[in-house]
Design goal:
The complex is a heterodimer. Chain A is an alpha/beta fold. Chain A contains 19 helices and 17 strands. Classes of the chains: A alpha/beta, B alpha+beta. At the A-B interface, α3 and α10 of A face α16, β30 and α17 of B. Chain A: This is Acyl-CoA carboxylase subunit beta.
Chain lengths: ~500, ~675
């Protein structure tokens, strides 16, 4: 018995050392933490419970039978973040470069299966050179086993991927299918084929950072949702982010006590909308003055800035916020902003997170690049996402709601539960000038008449009352009462029951 | 007394005048431009008349419109405030014609003092010191020597067209004149094609000191002591105080009497200010010289009100109504010390770039004119009140407009001593919350704490001399830095405790550690939080704060001092704590993670001199260069339009454009890299 205890201690110690001191030092020298250190930062002190510590690979080719390292390159288990359960895996770059073997994959799968059973999120910390080439197809199979579970878990438990080192080749597709991806600036990258292969095949010369660094993925590709300075800041952000998410689609949104009065009045919002309809203003101000303590976790802040998506709380409970941003491209809907918001709305709907939408949208972006890029299909994604969502939906139109974009932005017609408008709202098919130029085409060359008709059109439609008279707007509200209205609305909508017809699944225009 | 007064001004000074009118039971009329339709002074006045478009030339400078507004509302008198029409003799004459009283001096006095040459002549005749110098151009070195000796060294030899350091030579003695005179002539000829040279007394350690005059129509003219306004930046006053630390009772009397003599010589009544330049090098205090007379209420009048207890606006109104001053020169005393700082919408961390825009948050340390409370407790109208006064004309959610002066507010403190008034400034500035536009609050606090400011050794070169490399935040000592570390650890700790209250936990709230490691500006502090204080790097600091998650402005104490702090969560990990004129950015992690913190690589901040960074959110309207272009310092690189204003961004040093990262028409965020140089 005592011999076994000694053996257990020995093996645990071996597991803790991973790939050995030299490799740990090398990892540190790059500013990167080890797999276990990362879990120390991510999880509550002492909460990590490791599983499969003694797992080793079963490969016997290319001399691998002589190289057995306890844990096989991934540390798995469970722990808590601010007391709430989470399942984790953390790839260990010091062990075979974090490469994925069959057993390595099995460990990840076991964690995911357990998380699915109990209804708790999975956070994966990725730092892996790729497939364990010595194992060949067994490694590929391992990836696919993980992929299959990512898909089954999607919409059941939140899945977060944190990219903390290389993530290349087939390995990218597991994070790609999770709900959110965070990256570490300068020390992580993701691509399907690396710079060397790219050069061989297409003759393009490109750096790792340009091809798949944090900047690339948070600005251009939108593969990643945000990036942070270093391992510690990334993991601290992940902790904060985790607090917004429900544990699963069976659990309600978490509640964080707040001292912020639910009926806090913000008089300054009454003067937010500039007198000049073409002058922008920062929609972030509405968001932060509406949410508890102004606390807002923005998703993809550097991509498609014309729409803002993120999480906050009202009366302590998580809400998803979607808002047009007049500061960027006048808040227009385009391909990127539609895709960004559509995915966010679907996440909220899947996990019963109420959606608050702030609208100031002049329409869809015209132009060949948009039309040829498929704005029809991509714009439809956001329309589809809002229309199918059954969670409480509260919409506040602050200024423009023009054309088809009005319909898209959680309008009454898409089963909006509470559709409010500020007195500055204008709900119309298009701006007055454009409308008049079409209706009174014959008077195009008569500037006086055009001006007169424009004024007429403005007086008729540049207000929320026409829409309100039809019941498309439930109430015209003071900007200063926005938080109170939303808080009350969310309270009253807690009991909302609505379901879509039975189907195997819908067919969103992908 | 008037029953209704129109205020031909805007912003804080309009609010200020309205407040005194209210106290005197006089009805008020505001006039406003398009840009001010929502402004507080419009709401504060009993009536308001719209007079035109946003640019001052189309509204506040239109005398006809203002006279029309008077007629329309039945206003009997006009207070002009400062700026705009306040020093236009023609405006006063036009009002006279209509039988409307101008609350200010007579047109004749305004006209006389408005002319630079004329006013100097008048001053000289009235026996006021003027800067000694040659009347005519000087031809020979001999003549130059003679005149220099008459004036007394040091002297400045100035080419007629010279300026900006060119064609100017300082002489401390005969030898300097002998060696330099001909050279100055040549420089003038070569640079400006004009070899005439004048000689003038060189004022060493120049200070800007001014005398407040108050006179009635009955011929009583008093001086209400001096104000010192030496702290200036590009001729814009930043800090003013009364009295001046340089002025002795004898000097005050001499300056005051000369100012009174000048006022009487031009038949002055109402409030006015005689500006003097004073040589700080001459400790006798005899070297003061006339600069100009401002025939209006000054921006910095509150400091005089604070030390004399005289409401200058009230007496301008009473004098205009024909009342006689009830006090004599001997009744004017000096009670304590008062300092005014001007809170501007400009960013000292970015070379004082104007930073106008929307006031997302605006909370002055005490309510200003725009606040809820009345005038109670403001020294100046109500002696014996609190020591802090805020003169403002803005509100949270309002706009600091590009059309007018970018001043947000004036912060005036009073204390029994100069140090007390300065200490109160520091405290009040800490508690002054402005978000949205950049502001100079940190910079003002830094000046208030600066040892040289405290010593009273001021000159008009103070800012240029003390901040030659620009402003990076006020100096901070070790004990304060440790306190900041403790406060940041405490904040992270309370946030952790708060987050532990979340629903859906497996068990009770996770325990919150008391041992922390805090990193601020590359330095690491070990903090152990305790009851009523903390141990930082082994040293106990007694201190507490009422900060809680969700707050920004809070009270803190430590090391025996009370401070207001502004503590914000900048990112998920980084805290920004502002106090005492400096913003500290720090990160706190539980001590168990300290060894891990050591592995994080301090990233080299990018070499900003090799990049053109967008200083404000705006639209890139023009790129003046293309990739591969060679540029010289000062050459325009890009034009960014923000808030309808075009800002030309220039090259700081020589280089070649290596890449351009933005295109014309792009919306740029602050700090976005527009282009890179090599």
């Amino acid at each position: 018995m005592s011999a076994n205890i000694a053996e257990m201690e020995k093996r645990r110690e071996a597991a803790r050392m991973g790939g050995g001191q030299k490799r740990i030092d090398a990892q540190h020298a790059k500013g990167k933490l080890t797999a276990r250190e990362r879990l120390d930062v991510l999880l509550d002190e002492g909460s990590f419970e490791e599983l499969d510590t003694y797992v080793v690979h079963d490969c016997t080719d290319f001399g691998m039978e002589d190289q057995q390292i306890m844990g096989d390159g991934v540390v798995t288990g469970s722990g808590t973040i601010n007391g709430r359960l989470v399942y984790v895996f953390s790839q260990d770059f010091t062990v075979f470069g974090g490469s994925l073997s069959k057993r390595h994959a099995e460990k990840i799968c076991k964690v995911m299966d357990t998380a699915m059973k109990v209804g708790a999120p999975v956070i994966g910390l990725n730092d892996s050179g790729g497939a364990r080439i010595q194992e060949g197809v067994a490694s590929l199979g391992g990836y696919a086993e993980v992929f299959q579970r990512n898909v089954l878990a999607s919409g059941v438990i939140p899945q977060i991927s944190v990219i903390m080192g290389p993530c290349a080749g087939g390995a990218v597709y597991s994070p790609a299918m999770t709900d959110f991806i965070f990256m570490v600036k300068d020390s992580s990258y993701m691509f399907v084929t690396g710079p060397e292969v790219v050069k061989t095949v297409t003759n393009e010369v490109v750096t790792q950072e340009e091809l798949g660094g944090a900047v690339t993925h948070t600005t251009k590709t939108s593969v990643a949702d945000d990036a942070f300075e270093n391992d510690i800041e990334t993991l601290m952000a992940t902790r904060r982010f985790f607090d917004f998410l429900p544990l699963s689609n069976r659990e309600p949104v978490p509640e964080m006590p707040s001292n912020d009065p639910w009926d806090r009045r913000e008089d300054s919002l009454d003067t937010l909308i500039p007198d000049n309809a073409n002058q922008p203003y920062d929609m972030h101000e509405v968001i932060s003055k509406t949410l508890d303590d102004g606390d807002f976790f923005e998703i993809q802040p550097k991509h498609a800035g014309n729409i803002i998506c993120g999480f906050g709380r009202v009366e302590g409970r998580t809400v998803g916020v979607v808002a047009n941003q007049p500061m960027v491209l006048a808040g227009v809907l385009d391909i990127n902003s539609s895709k960004k918001a559509a995915r966010f709305v679907r996440f909220c709907d899947a996990f019963d997170i109420p959606i608050v939408t702030f609208v100031d949208v002049p329409g869809f972006l015209p132009g060949t690049s948009q039309e040829l890029g498929g704005i029809i299909k991509h714009g439809a994604k956001l329309l589809f996402a809002y229309a199918e969502a059954t969670v409480p939906k509260i919409t506040v139109i602050t200024r423009k709601a023009y054309g088809g974009a009005y319909d898209v932005m959680a309008s009454k017609h898409l089963r909006g539960d509470l559709n409010y408008a500020w007195p500055t709202a204008e709900i119309a098919v298009m701006g007055a000038k454009g409308a008049v130029e079409i209706i009174f085409r014959q008077d195009r060359d008569d500037p006086e008449k055009i001006a007169e008709k424009t004024k007429e059109y403005e007086d008729r439609f540049a207000n929320p009352f026409v829409a309100a008279s039809r019941g498309y707007i439930d109430e015209v509200i003071y900007p200063h009462s926005t938080r109170r209205r939303i808080a009350l609305g969310l309270r009253k909508l807690r009991g909302k029951e609505l379901s879509n017809p039975w189907k195997k699944h819908d067919n969103i225009p992908l | 007394m008037f029953s209704k007064i129109l205020i031909a001004n805007r912003g804080e000074i309009a609010c200020r005048v309205i407040q005194t009118c209210k106290r005197m039971g006089i009805a008020t009329v505001a006039v406003y431009s398009d840009a001010d339709a929502r402004a507080p002074f419009v709401k504060m006045a009993d009536e308001a008349v719209h007079i035109g478009a946003a640019p001052a030339a189309e509204s506040y400078l239109l005398a006809d419109k203002i006279i029309e507004a008077c007629k329309q509302t039945g206003a009997e008198a006009v207070h002009p405030g400062y700026g705009f029409l306040s020093e236009r003799a023609s405006f006063v004459e036009a009002l006279d014609k209509e039988g409307i009283v101008f609350i200010g001096p007579p047109a004749k006095a305004i006209a006389a003092m408005g002319d630079k040459i004329e006013s100097k002549k008048l001053a000289k005749e009235a026996g006021v010191n003027t800067v000694p110098g040659s009347k005519d151009a000087i031809d020979t070195t001999e003549e130059a020597l003679k005149i220099s000796n008459e004036i007394g060294y040091p002297v400045m030899m100035k080419a007629s067209a010279g300026g900006g350091g060119k064609g100017m030579r300082l002489a401390w003695n005969d030898k300097d004149v002998e060696e330099g005179f001909e050279a100055t002539k040549r420089e003038g000829l070569n640079s400006f094609g004009d070899d005439r040279v004048f000689i003038e007394k060189f004022i060493e350690d120049p200070r800007h000191i001014e005398i407040q005059i108050l006179a009635d129509r009955q011929g009583n003219t008093l001086y209400l002591n001096e104000r010192e306004c030496s702290i200036q930046r590009r001729h814009q006053k930043v800090v003013e105080e009364a009295p001046s630390p340089f002025v002795t009772p004898e000097m005050r009397k001499a300056m005051g009497e000369q100012a009174v003599a000048l006022s009487q010589a031009v038949g002055y009544f109402s409030a006015g200010t005689v500006e003097l330049i004073v040589s700080g090098a001459d400790k006798t205090g005899e070297s003061f010289y006339f600069l100009e007379m401002n025939t209006r209420l000054q921006v910095e009048h509150p400091v005089t009100e604070a030390i004399t207890g005289v409401d200058l606006v009230e007496w301008m109104i009473r004098v205009a109504a024909g009342e006689e001053l009830p006090f004599k020169q001997d009744d004017i005393g000096i009670d304590g010390w008062s300092i005014e700082t001007r809170v501007y919408a400009e960013d000292p961390y970015r070379n004082f770039l104007p930073s106008i825009g929307r006031l997302v948050r605006y909370e002055p340390p005490v309510p200003g004119w725009t606040g809820a409370s009345g005038p109670a407790g403001r020294r100046g109208h109500e002696m014996g009140g609190g020591g802090i006064r805020v003169d403002d004309g803005v509100f949270e959610g309002g706009e600091v407009s590009i059309f007018y002066d970018p001043m947000i507010a004036k912060l005036i403190t009073w204390g029994p001593t100069r140090d007390a008034a300065a200490d109160l400034q520091v405290e009040a500035l800490d508690a002054f919350r402005v978000e949205g536009p950049g502001h100079n609050i940190d910079f003002l606090s830094a000046i208030m704490q600066h040892p040289r400011f405290r010593s009273g050794e001021l000159t008009t070169g103070f800012i240029a001399e003390e901040y030659p490399e620009g402003f990076q935040g006020a100096a901070v000592d070790e004990p304060r830095l440790k306190l900041v570390a403790a406060l940041i650890a405490g904040a992270q700790c309370s946030v952790m405790a708060h987050e532990g209250q979340i629903s859906g936990r497996l068990d009770g709230a996770p325990k919150v550690p008391s041992d922390w490691v805090v990193k601020i500006d590359g330095r690491t502090f070990e903090v152990v939080l305790g009851e009523g204080g903390a141990t930082v790097d082994g040293e106990w600091i007694t201190g507490t704060t009422d900060w809680q998650p969700g707050m920004v402005l809070a009270a803190a104490n430590g090391n025996g001092e009370n401070l207001a702090i502004q503590l914000r969560r900048e990112t998920s990990a980084i805290w920004a704590l502002t106090t005492r004129g400096r913003t500290h950015k720090g990160l706190a992690v539980p001590a168990r993670l300290a060894p891990l913190l050591d592995h994080m690589i301090e990233k080299e901040p990018p070499d900003l001199s090799k990049m053109l960074i967008c200083p404000m959110p705006g639209l890139l309207v023009k790129l003046h260069v293309a990739e591969g272009d060679e540029v010289q310092p000062g050459q325009p690189l890009a034009t960014v339009e923000a808030m309808k204003m075009e800002n030309i961004l220039r090259a700081e040093k020589e280089g070649t454009i290596s890449s351009i990262n933005a295109a014309e028409g792009d919306s740029l965020a602050v700090d976005e890299v527009i282009l890179e140089l090599e």
